[in-house]
Structures are given as structure tokens and as C-alpha cells.
Amino acid sequence: MNLEYSPHRRFNPLTNEWVLVSPHRSKRPWQGKEEKVPVPATATYDSTCYLCPGNQRKNGAKNPDYKGTFVFENDFAALLPQAPSAVYQTDELFRVEMERGICRVVCFSPDHSLSIPLLSDKQMEAVVDTWKAQTQELSQLDFINYIQIFENKGELMGCSNPHPHGQIWASQSLPVEIEKEDQSQKEYYQKYQRTLLGDYLKQEQKKNQRIVIESEYFVALVPFWAIWPFETMIIAKRPIGSLLAMSLRESKDLAWIYQQLTIRYDNLFQCSFPYSAGIHQSPFNGNDQQHWHLHLHFYPPLLRSATVRKFMVGYEMLATPQRDITAEKSAKMLRELPNFHYLHNE
Questions:
Q1: 18 phi, psi to nearest 5 deg
Q2: Which residues neighbour 342 within 8 Å (Cβ) at sequence distance 6 or greater?
């Protein structure tokens, strides 16, 4: 089998799902839709931005004159802490369960013009420290069983405000993707007494085909089963389950590799590269979590340039996810990019 030229399927052991890879299709001409490249914000303060320091938000609350990170309850939260405990079920085909949770916004910096790749080392370390502090606080609530930290960057990923920020949704139930990963990791651990991602990472380090960046405590790579063209993961080298298990040095290292990866994203097409990224950590439901291995997912939509993106349509929506560019090729492209931001090369 020549995986660089022949159609094939790849298995994702984290979710027990397959992806179709069709590398020969990457040569097809593109006459489809091209997006306008969003113009990055250049002003450090925007009087109309509801996330900038001192500004009033839509619900009337006024932001403090914050100097570092700033966390507040989402004014338009998808989950609410108060909800009746009820189940609606007429039969097995119609089921509803009430869901409780807390949604928060995390502003990464008071500077409106920045994004993760452009933060200073100290600012990025403060972001990771904030994620840890929020995880610690929310995990103490008796109705919270999972904490999803994520960032949507760019208009293409539905980000409604260019100010550097992310979100935290803490929920009563386990989200669908977490349930799949929880089950797969548990089954693997019960079989081998080792974490699935720990063994996977060792194999990736031996092969050294899809690794983009390796630091002291983490590895950033394009997963063998990646769906999105430049999809990546950051995996902890040590089999820790959550952010709360990280040492101070690991926290600093996570901040460094997260930023280094996003710098390469920006450098790829020399634009403020859009993506959705999130941390997958063990649930906080009181169960044994030895099988969990801390990791992060990055899902960027761009395919050929800053104006051509991948869409999940047709066969992918109706049958199986599919990609054209191989994981090995995208990893090579990312790996060979400079480790300094293209805006700072003068």
C-alpha cells in the first residue's frame, strides 16, 4: 500500500470511527468558493468591543479595567446553573433530560489586537494558569461532571468577536465526544494497564512522521486519523488525566507548545489562521480516571490557502469523513515552518 497516493481508510481508536483518505484528489483544480481574508484588528482598544477593559457588555455589566486575563459568566450562556431535575420520555424514541451547567468567557489579554500566537510568554502562561484555576473552582461544584475549555478563533469558525478570548462550558453530563473517548480509553486501559494515548504517542515518536513540535513535556502532532487538513493534537508525555495534575513546569511547557503550534498555523498561509481548539481532560464525576490521558485537539478549516477552506458536505455528511491531503504531508508542511511569527520576521 502506498498511503501517499492510494485511497484508504484510517481508524481513530479514540472514537472508534473511520476516516476516508483520498490523497490523489489533492491535485484536483479548485473553482469553488473563496472567502475574503478577514482583516485582523490593529487597534489595542475598541470602544465598541464588549470584551475590552472598561466597556459595557450587552447585559449592562461593565468590564473592569483588567490588565491580564479576565473571566466572567457568559451573558448568553448555553447552560444555566439552575434547571429543574426532570426527564421527559414518551417512549424510547422521544427523550429529553434537563441539563445544568455554567458557561464562562476567558479574555486572554486586554489588548484587542492580539491573538494567542502574538501573546508574550508571560501572557500565554497566565492563560494556562487561568484555565487551571477555573478547572479547580468549577470541579468543586457537586453538579459539575465535565469541564470543556475551548477557543474559537476567526470568523470562519463562528467567532463573534475578534478580541482574544476563549470559553469554558462546565456541564452536568458528559458531552458526546468525551463519552466516546472515555469508553475507548477505558477499554484500552483495562486490556493493557496503560493509557491509549501514551502507547500511541510512543509509536508516533518512533515513526517520527507526523510530529510537528516536541517539547520537554508535550508533543504536537498531526494524528494518524486526522480529518481536517491541518488538524493537530497536543498530547502530554506523562499519563496525567487533567490540568490539575500538571506541575508548574508542565504548565509553562503547555503554554509554550500551544503558542508555537498556533504561530505555525499563522505562518502557513500568512494570515490570522482560524481554528477551534479545546482541551480534553478526565471527567470530574468521582469515578476512577486512570485511563484518561490529557490532550488537546485543534480543528482548523483552511485547506489550500487563506481563502479556501474545507467543508463537511455530501459524502462526509451522509457517509464517512474524508480528507485529501495526508496526515504525513500536512505534518511536514507545519513542521518546516519558522518558529517565529511571520509578522515578526523583520
A1: -115, 155
A2: 266, 267, 270
Residue 39 has pLDDT above 70, yes or no: no
Residue 58: give its domain's CATH number: 3.30.428.10
Beta pairing class for 17-21 and 322-323: parallel
Tell me if 3 is assigned to some domain. Answer: no
Q: Is residue 28 part of a domain?
A: no
Q: Considering the entire predicted model, what is its pTM?
A: 0.93
Contact assessment for residue 272 and residue 38, using Cβ atoms and an 8 Å cutoff: yes
In a domain, 5, yes or no: no
Distance from C-alpha of 300 to C-alpha of 152, rounded to nearest angstrom: 10
What does the mean pLDDT of the chain come to? 91
Q: How many domains does the chain have?
A: 1
3-state secondary structure labels for all residues of 30-86? CCCCCCCCCCCCCCCCCCCCCCCCCCECCCCCECCCCCCCEEEECCCCCCECCCCCC
Nearest 5°: the CA angle 189, 244, 114 is 115
3-state secondary structure of 185: helix
Catalytic residues: 165
- Hey, what amino acid is at 72? F
Contacts for 252 with CB less than 8 Å, ≥ 6 apart? 125, 128
At 274 the three-state DSSP class reads: coil
pLDDT mean over 252-256:
98
Quote the crossing angle between the two packed helices 248-269 and 121-139, to the nearest 10°.
120
Q: Is residue 116 part of a domain?
A: yes
Burial grade of 89 (CB within 10 A; 0-12, 13-18, 19 or more): exposed
What pLDDT, on a 0 to 100 scale, did the predictor assign at position 311? 81
Torsion of CA 38, 43, 47, 53, to 10 degrees: 110
Give the mean model confidence (pLDDT) for residues 283-291: 95
Name the residue type at position 335.
R
Domain that holds residue 115: 11-23+35-344
Mean pLDDT value across residues 72-91: 84
The three cell numbers of residue 200 are 500511541
